[in-house]
Design a protein that fits this description.
Transmembrane segments: 20-42, 54-75, 87-107, 148-175, 181-199, 211-236
Shape: globular
Helix content: over 70%
Keywords: Membrane, Transmembrane, Transmembrane helix
Number of domains: 2
Number of strands: 4
Strand order of the largest sheet: 1-2
Radius of gyration: 21 Å
Structural class: mainly alpha
Length: 251
């Protein structure tokens, strides 16, 4: 069992790259605050009443995009290195999965801590994330309960995007050149056909509407949705690595 060496190797890289992303987001938020202090916010009219609204920063989207990219670029390398050093496919895959989960937790824990510190400063700069947009009318979470819900939802979304990256990377790894072309074109065509079908068939449009209404109806629904996506994506990724050849890095 060589789980720990693979995990430590990958976690070190994720801590460095994740730390850079955290630093960039913190610096951008601070710069936005100084920009507001210097230039002010922007005005919006609500029922004839003009109020000043301040710039917003979204922490969730950069983090989930980062997790998507990390999922794509790390899984193949970890599978190669693990197998070359005597670890099995399952061990290598689980070590990568554990590292992605730990990275998602740390990134969103950074959000929780930063929200708490920012709330103490009372800067009037609104900081939002996925949970805030869906359930807090785009306001910064200010209670511990709201911050914890932001943490849970952000972590679930990060795992879903990381799983999507892992799945795509491994599926493309398994396919030949022709298969990659067919899959790439097929995904675009399937998306267009699905959009057209949802516009043409009322029952499909209604089903999609009801489903997405259910997702945003309660935080637990959204969390379950993202975690289910993560389970499906990671499951497909694991399935396609059961017997695929471990090829060179240029493949």
């Amino acid at each position: 069992m060589r789980f720990a060496p693979i995990f430590k190797y990958r976690m070190r890289d994720c801590l460095i790259s994740g730390g850079v992303v955290m630093l960039v987001m913190v610096v951008m938020t601070v710069l936005s605050y100084f920009g507001i202090v210097t230039f002010g916010g922007y005005e919006e009219s609500v029922d004839g009443v003009v109020t000043e609204r301040f710039a917003t920063m979204n922490f969730t989207m950069p983090y989930v995009i980062f997790m998507f990219v990390v999922g794509i670029v790390t899984i193949r390398e970890d599978m190669r290195i693990g197998i070359q050093n005597g670890a099995g496919r399952t061990t290598s895959f689980l070590a990568n999965l554990a590292c992605l989960a730990a990275t998602a937790l740390l990134l969103n824990l950074n959000c929780l801590v930063f929200y708490k510190l920012w709330a103490l400063l009372d800067t009037e700069l609104i900081i939002i994330d996925l949970y805030s947009m869906a359930f807090l009318q785009e306001m910064t979470p200010d209670t511990l309960g709201e911050m914890l819900m932001c943490f849970i939802t952000g972590t679930a979304a990060s795992l879903a995007l990381a799983g999507c990256g892992v799945m795509l990377s491994l599926v493309y790894w398994r396919l030949g050149k022709a298969g990659k072309w067919i899959l790439s074109l097929g995904m675009g065509a399937a998306f267009i056909l699905f959009i057209n079908a949802s516009a043409s068939y009322d029952w499909l449009r209604l089903a999609l509407t009801n489903f997405f209404v259910w997702v945003v109806k309660a935080p637990i629904n959204m969390d379950v949705f993202f975690l289910a996506l993560a389970a499906v994506f990671f499951g497909i990724g694991r399935a396609v690595t059961l017997k695929n050849p471990i090829t060179a890095a240029t493949a």
